[in-house]
Amino acid sequence: MKTIALISALFSLSAFAQVDSLIKLYDGGVARCQSKADVYRHRISSVYRPLELKQNADQTFIKIEFLRCVKNNDQYSFVRDYSISRPRIINDELTDGRELSVVKDNFTMIAVNNRGQLIDRSTLEANEDGTYSVVLDIKTEEYELTPTGKSSVEVLVQTRFKISDMNTEEIIDRGTESLGAYRLIIK
Fold first, then answer.
1. With contact defined as beta carbons under 8 Å apart, do 166 and 101 qualify?
2. How far apart are CA 80 and CA 160, in angstroms?
3. CA 61-66-182 angle, 5° bins
4. Under DSSP, is residue 41 helix (H, G, I), strand (E, B) or coil?
5. What are the pLDDT tens digits along the chain (187 aa)?
6. CB burial class (10 A; 0-12, 13-18, 19+) of residue 33?
7. How far is CA 24 from the centre of its chain?
8. Is the distance from CB of 55 to CB of 23 less than 8 angstroms?
């Protein structure tokens, strides 16, 4: 697995940190919400960002939020997506008049080291405020040092998806979607 070199957040050891700088895409690029095309692009593909991190000797707690691009009062912006796990219905010129259902489930966070080797994998749990949380079994010694001597680990989110025709119930596509990776740096 290719290691993403982008640093998305700096976290303090054993403390919560707010993160709001980058919103990632599956390929490591940064998601944008600046036009009608962005609103359209992000209706099927999901974006997320980490909000909090708390680390102790044996475990790492991470809280994230999924986002969607919307236009309000001539302004484009990302807002928290409270409906990420509900079916989305799409019916437009690209579906040839068919009404399609897009369902996502089994949101999983994966932690890997600098060599792309699996450290831990765990299912994200929904919180009442629309965010998702996960506790990963990452021991302090499993964090790897960056060239500047700081500890780091890479995390990514994957989900299963299914796209089906609402009228015929035909499954058009199914698979796993990767939602982007973040390199977490511990000061």
1. yes
2. 20
3. 55
4. helix
5. 222 222 232 222 223 333 333 455 545 567 788 888 888 776 666 788 888 888 887 888 889 988 888 888 989 988 888 877 787 777 766 677 788 888 888 899 999 887 788 999 999 999 999 899 999 998 877 778 777 877 778 888 898 889 888 888 889 889 998 877 887 776 6
6. buried
7. 7
8. no
DSSP codes, 115-161: T--EEEEEE-EE-TTS-EEEEE---GGGSEE-TTS-EEEEEEEEEEE
Contact between residue 26 and residue 33 where contact means Cβ atoms under 8 Å apart: no
Q: What is the pTM for the complete model shown?
A: 0.71
Strands 100-112, 144-145: parallel, antiparallel or unpaired by DSSP? Answer: unpaired
Query: 């511990």: which residue's tokens?
Result: 186
Bridge partners, residue 24, by sequence? 30, 48
d(CA 62, CA 16): 9
Work out whether strand 118-123 and strand 100-112 pair parallel, antiparallel, or are unpaired.
antiparallel
DSSP 8-state assignment for residue 95: G
Chain position carrying tokens 């500047």 = 148
Q: Tokens 């680990």 sit at which residue?
A: 153
Residue holding tokens 């600098």?
114
For the CA atoms of 122, 132, 139, 141, what is the dihedral angle to 10 degrees? 110
Decide: 98 and 91 in contact? Cβ < 8 Å.
yes
